[in-house]
TrEMBL record:
InterPro entries: Calcineurin-like_PHP (IPR004843), DBR1_C (IPR007708), Dbr1_N (IPR041816), Metallo-depent_PP-like (IPR029052). It is found in: Nucleus. It comes from the Eukaryota. This is DBR1 enzyme. GO terms for biological process: mRNA splicing, via spliceosome. Residues 415-427 have a biased composition (Polar residues). One of its GO terms (cellular component) is nucleus. Its main location: nucleus. Residues 386-538 are annotated as: Disordered. Residues 235-380 form the Lariat debranching enzyme C-terminal domain.
Length: 538
């Protein structure tokens, strides 16, 4: 089957789906499934905008609300993970995954589903070491800290995924697995993104948690986004025994969804021709959720997952074939995910803007039904109980949070010896949360809805590429071919030619040497729209 993979969507659903329709009209290629690797921005209303960690001037309504209200419907089944610029209050309603709109499915904090026999997994958010060992304690209304920590990856999600034994076909993460750049054309990557050099050379770019999952799961494909650059790699995994067959992962990072950006990829994936067209639960994943349910934590306390170190009576939570069989019997062997999407918030009305709408903590009926079906803890219900009982807090004290790079901060020791707080490199192609030299005003809601009529596409944009059969690349830095040439090899097809003019990237708040002109940069990968204004003026 044909699978379309998109990078950071940033709420531009109309643009994304219109691009797929363009592909079908011009090349008779119709994807069966669309995957989005984070920064989806499922914004329903003005309150959701307040829960998105971007400066106020970047809080635009975009077009998701039209799909949420039912005005429009996604023309292709869409599965996505969360990134670091999301309506966190909306996604938090679905910690185990669920429908955010008809035909648009969120994988949750971490999740595995099946479609036509293809096993698809993912983990939402980005890695920050100082929040990694905490529970999911945040809930709206968020403060300056929790609006960020809400999208930080937690060790319990990684632990759950590491209990999987059956092969994964496709896996998605928002930030890149650390070290993956050593398996592709690193020279070309640094030519396009020279400000990554220090972190690449010190091997601190990307997520160590994602790298751990990559080595454990060894999926056939791994897709990421976040850094707003296209990059392909091929990783051959080591075998644990002579009997084990060699495995390799084809990695691809996608650009963000903008004209003139190569943000969409089409790949052919082997599937089960006898499988139905419905999105399905994965029986092993459900069994793992049941097995690890006792580990659910909704406090800020840092804690480690069970391991074989003499401190835990049990450390292996992988499941038996019998446990998987029990899940199948509970569902009467019908794994189809119910189409039980429900509106849980008012939808944005362009004729009646409500700029003062406040976010509220909502328990989604989908999550309630899912937890009741499988005997799981509803995380949001537990948070609510903890708040009411005074035994926990839904938000942390307002403390200055020092976040500089994609690995975390020096405030707390991490189980990964990878913190890199001294780095000051940043991506000028991204949003910097404190680019104006002060804290965000969470009460500010600047609603700028998309125009009612979709913009006409330039005849020179190249948003889609057909993936070649092999994504294998050399790690030799002397290799002259770039990632675009990799796409062209193996009979890949480019829908449109890229513009020949290279737009210069603009650094925010800094001098020519990249030094910050405002207070210390807190994050390396925060700014996501920095080049957007230039794109719009082209």
């Amino acid at each position: 089957m044909k699978v379309a993979v998109a990078g950071c969507c940033h709420g531009a659903l109309d643009k994304m789906y219109e691009t797929l329709e363009l592909l079908q009209r011009r090349h008779n290629v119709r994807p069966d499934l669309l995957l989005c690797c984070g920064d989806f921005q499922a914004v329903r209303n003005e309150a959701d905008l307040r829960c998105m960690a971007v400066p106020a001037k970047y809080r635009h309504m975009q077009t998701f609300y039209r799909y949420y209200s039912g005005e429009k419907k996604a023309p292709v089944l869409t599965v996505f993970i969360g990134g670091n610029h999301e309506a966190s209050n909306h996604l938090q309603e679905l910690p185990y995954g669920g429908w955010v709109a008809p035909n648009i499915y969120y994988l949750g904090y971490a999740g595995v589903v099946r479609f036509r026999g293809v096993r698809i997994g993912g983990i939402s958010g980005i890695f920050k070491s100082h929040d990694y060992r905490k529970g999911h304690f945040e809930c709206p209304p968020y403060n300056q800290q929790t609006i960020r920590s809400a999208y930080h990856v937690r060790n319990i999600e990684v632990f759950k995924l590491k209990q999987l034994k059956r092969p994964i076909d496709i896996f998605m993460s928002h930030d890149w697995p650390r070290s993956i750049y050593h398996y592709g054309n690193k020279k070309q990557l640094l030519k396009m993104k020279s400000f990554f050099r220090q972190e690449v050379e010190s091997n601190t770019l990307g997520s160590p948690a994602a790298s751990e999952l990559l080595q454990h799961l060894k999926p056939t494909y791994w897709f990421s986004a976040h850094l707003h650059v296209k990059f392909a790699a091929f990783m051959q995994h080591e075998t644990n025994s002579k009997e084990e067959l060699p495995k390799a992962t084809k990695f691809l990072a996608l650009d963000k969804c903008l004209p003139h950006r190569d943000f969409l990829q089409i790949i052919d994936v082997e599937h089960d021709p006898n499988a139905g067209d419905s999105l399905e639960y994965d029986a092993e994943w459900i069994a793992v959720l049941k097995a690890t349910n006792s580990l659910v934590n909704v406090t800020q306390s840092s804690w480690n997952m069970p391991e074989k170190n003499g401190l835990h009576a049990k450390w292996d939570y992988s499941v038996t074939e019998e446990a998987i069989k029990e899940v199948l019997e509970e569902l009467n062997h019908d794994l189809k995910i119910p189409c039980n999407f429900t509106l849980t918030a008012a939808c944005y009305d362009p004729s009646k803007p409500q700029k003062n709408m406040e976010p509220v903590h909502t328990i989604n009926p989908q999550t309630t039904e899912f937890c009741a079906c499988f005997g799981l803890t509803d995380i949001n219900d537990r948070i609510q109980q903890a708040k009411e009982e005074g035994s926990g807090r839904g938000e942390c004290e307002e403390e200055e949070e020092e976040e500089i790079d994609s690995t975390g901060s020096a405030e707390e020791p991490s189980e990964y010896n990878t913190d890199n707080s001294g780095l000051s490199s940043f991506n000028p192609d991204e949003i910097m949360l404190d680019e104006e030299g002060g804290e965000e005003d969470l009460s500010t809601c600047s609603v700028d809805p998309s125009p009612d009529h979709p913009p006409e596409f330039s005849t020179s944009f190249s948003d889609i590429r057909i993936m070649p059969d092999s994504m294998a690349v050399s790690s030799d830095d002397a290799m002259d071919s770039n990632n675009e040439e990799l796409d062209k090899s193996g009979g890949s097809e480019q829908v449109e030619e890229k513009s020949s003019t290279e737009r210069s990237l603009k650094r925010i708040g800094g001098d020519e040497n990249g030094n910050s002109g405002v207070k210390k940069i807190k994050r390396r990968n925060q700014a996501i729209y920095a080049a957007e204004d230039e794109d719009k003026t082209d």
